[in-house]
Design a protein that fits this description.
The chain starts with 5 loop residues before the first strand and ends with a helix. Strand 7 and strand 8 form a beta hairpin. By secondary structure, it is an alpha+beta fold. It folds into two domains: 195 residues, Jelly Rolls (Sandwich); 86 residues, Arc Repressor Mutant, subunit A, CATH 1.10.10. The strands form two sheets. It has a seven-stranded antiparallel sheet. A five-stranded antiparallel sheet has the order 2-5-10-7-8, covered by helices on one side.
Length: 318
């Protein structure tokens, strides 16, 4: 199986005087600066590739002022979506000054300078480098939101933030095909968030609108997997679409709605059966927690999915 590129770079073995150049080369074509050369670069950079999207996870452990002063080396063909995970940051970019809190996101134009100040503490950032030509909205529309705070704590913003953070965590589990699919979904969700802020959903391609709706449906179902009365009608009504349209969304993803729900429920059960802290809970109680009303049906479905019974799986994990 061909796996995606993934590299972890750390400043641990790099002399203080050389850390800025080290970061410069890693983040090329950007040209970063730091106000405190010896402290900001105490951290690690996680570099990966998801299809057409590059991923940078940066962790540092100090307060610092940093940014991009010169844009001569930067690529005007890219945007960068940044997720702020841990510490508040003040950003100046695209003639805007924005205060960002954990859970916020911002879109950078990497050909333009920026200036940022993060508060003391662990600074965790996720950066996704997005090809300009693959953005789902026209450049003139996208540029209106460069440097604008995008909340990742509610609505479609939370959907994007959750998906992007999960993609970064699961990076080592993807093969090349998975990475290409994840990058496509990510770009569709970015387009959905920008269109929402611009009130321009009609500008999105049909395929992107469908993917955004599918991800909304996925999230809705995930939160209700334990409800044995979860039905297509309930899902369709919650999203103001017909049951026929709902089933078509899942057809495009290669499985039926019922198959997807069953797979998610089985995976939750498998996870709980693997958890030693839940070792005293009866198997039928775990199955019921995740929406299975028939123990015989659950056992049969579990064996088909994983090649052994729930009891055998629990014993093996122990």
């Amino acid at each position: 199986m061909a796996v995606i590129m993934h590299t972890v770079l750390t400043t641990e073995d790099v002399a203080n005087a050389e850390r800025l150049e080290y970061l410069w080369e890693t983040l090329s074509p950007a040209e970063p600066y730091v106000e405190d050369r010896e402290s900001l670069l105490d951290g690690a950079i996680d570099v990966g590739v998801l299809g057409t999207v590059n991923l940078l996870r940066i962790v540092s452990r100090c307060a610092a002022r940093h940014g991009l002063r010169h844009s001569g080396r930067s690529d005007p063909e890219d945007y960068r979506l940044s997720l702020f995970m841990d510490t508040p940051t003040m950003l100046t970019h695209n003639e805007r000054q924005t205060e960002l809190a954990p859970g916020d996101m911002v879109l950078f134009d990497v050909s333009r300078p920026y200036d940022a100040w993060n508060h003391p503490g662990k600074a965790g950032l996720l950066h996704f480098v997005l090809p300009r030509k693959q953005m789902r909205l026209p450049p003139a529309s996208v540029d209106k939101l460069v440097g604008v705070r995008l909340s990742g704590r509610s609505g479609i913003g939370a959907l994007l933030h959750t998906f992007a953070a999960q993609a970064a965590r699961d990076l080592d589990t993807y093969d090349l095909t998975d990475g290409a699919h994840v990058s496509t979904v990510l770009l569709d969700l970015v387009g959905g968030v920008l269109a929402h802020h611009l009130d321009a959903a009609g500008q999105l391609p049909v395929e992107s609108r469908q993917q955004v709706m599918l991800q909304r449906v996925h999230q809705f179902i995930q939160h209700r997997l334990g409800d044995p009365d979860l039905t297509p009608a309930m899902v369709a009504e919650a999203h103001h679409i017909s049951i026929r349209t709902l089933h078509r969304l899942f057809e495009s993803s290669g499985c039926t709605l019922a198959e997807w729900i069953r797979t998610q429920r089985l995976e939750r059960c498998r996870r709980d059966l693997s958890d030693p802290l839940l070792g005293d809970q009866p198997i039928h109680a775990i199955a019921r927690r995740w929406g299975f009303t028939s123990h015989a049906h659950f056992t049969r479905a579990f064996r088909i999915a994983y090649g052994l019974s729930p009891q055998e799986h629990r014993h093996q994990r122990r």
